[in-house]
């Protein structure tokens, strides 16, 4: 709970700074804008709606290109609620199964245990550690999202079309950029992106779409993401554990733009030398690359979570 509260609080502070000093306050699509002259209660309601949609669904800052399509307009509330609750049970089952049969059995997921990437595990078990952690993380977040969206739709606080899937399609995971930009959840995109745009375009005056602009935006976004997770880790840990695992989350997220940079250079060189349509074996190599990268650096983030006792069932 402390981890989630810390993440939400910091995200709201970053959004508040963005909308006060960096960019225009987002507005709802197909709805008259609420101006500064509107009644206080109206502006308060608009602010609550905006804060309740971290991905900006239905707002002017919605990353439409990064999200999976919303449910079809013909989807009724009853159909949506039933489907979301069913999916929540599926995710709960996966979480319970993997948690009881693997996570609880491995000492690397217990507070004070070895690293998830300890050499004693070897490549196979290291990979299993990362996969098990990833499946549990996806299952937990998806389950919570299904329950929340089923509730708000059932009580007519939102429509099914305002609740697109939480995670994107695995098809986009053939590159690190696609994995982080489309497959993984986009809760922090609207939080961190304005700072990258402001630094690259507003401060350093690079042209939008240029390579320096893209790199600065990417590195800034992951730096803020890592900092946010680092603060959440610290607030979750016991006072005597504050220095344990310190810097792990920030290190993990700072490695991601490095991987994206390497990936972009390799793709550019390869495509400039070997022109032609994409081959199936190339796509396979792409997925192997992404999986290998996450297996290599994933234990860094896992260790940060474990040091916060978020995976220690006994505690």
From TrEMBL:
Pathway connected to this protein: Secondary metabolite biosynthesis
Q: What sections of the protein cross the membrane?
A: 6-22, 130-155, 211-229, 250-271, 287-306
- Provide the alphabetized UniProt keywords: Membrane, Transferase, Transmembrane, Transmembrane helix
Domain Wax synthase residues, every copy: 163-254
- Which GO terms fall under biological process for this protein? lipid metabolic process
Its cellular-component GO annotations read: membrane
Question: How the protein sits in the membrane?
Answer: Multi-pass membrane protein
The source organism is: Marasmius oreades
Q: Domain of life here?
A: Eukaryota
Pfam families, A to Z: MBOAT_2 (PF13813)
Q: What is its main location?
A: membrane
Q: What is this protein called?
A: Wax synthase domain-containing protein
């Amino acid at each position: 709970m402390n981890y989630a509260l810390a993440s939400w609080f910091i995200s709201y502070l970053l959004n508040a700074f963005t909308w006060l000093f960096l960019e225009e306050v987002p507005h709802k699509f197909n709805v008259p804008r609420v101006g500064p002259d509107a009644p206080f209660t109206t502006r308060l309601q608009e602010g609550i709606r905006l804060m309740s949609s971290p991905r900006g669904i239905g707002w002017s800052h919605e990353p439409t290109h990064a999200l999976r399509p919303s449910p079809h307009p013909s989807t009724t509330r009853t159909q949506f609620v039933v489907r979301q609750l069913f999916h929540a049970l599926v995710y709960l089952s996966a979480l319970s199964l993997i948690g009881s049969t693997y996570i609880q059995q491995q000492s690397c997921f217990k507070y004070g245990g070895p690293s998830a990437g300890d050499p004693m595990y070897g490549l196979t078990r290291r990979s299993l550690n990362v996969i098990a952690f990833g499946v549990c993380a996806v299952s937990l977040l998806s389950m919570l999202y299904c329950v929340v969206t089923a509730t708000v739709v059932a009580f007519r606080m939102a429509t099914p079309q305002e609740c697109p899937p939480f995670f994107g399609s695995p098809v986009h995971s053939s590159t690190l950029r696609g994995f982080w930009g489309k497959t993984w959840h986009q809760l922090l995109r609207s939080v961190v992106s304005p700072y990258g745009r402001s630094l690259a375009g507003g401060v350093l005056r690079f042209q939008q779409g240029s390579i320096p602009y893209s790199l600065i935006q990417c590195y800034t976004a992951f730096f803020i993401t890592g900092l946010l997770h680092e603060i959440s880790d610290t607030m979750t840990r016991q006072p005597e554990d504050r220095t344990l695992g310190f810097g792990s989350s920030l290190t993990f997220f700072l490695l991601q733009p490095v991987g994206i940079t390497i990936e972009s250079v390799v793709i550019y060189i390869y495509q400039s030398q070997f022109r032609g349509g994409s081959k199936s074996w190339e796509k396979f190599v792409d997925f192997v690359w992404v999986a290998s990268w996450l297996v290599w650096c994933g234990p860094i983030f896992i260790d940060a979570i474990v040091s916060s006792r978020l995976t220690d069932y006994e505690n």
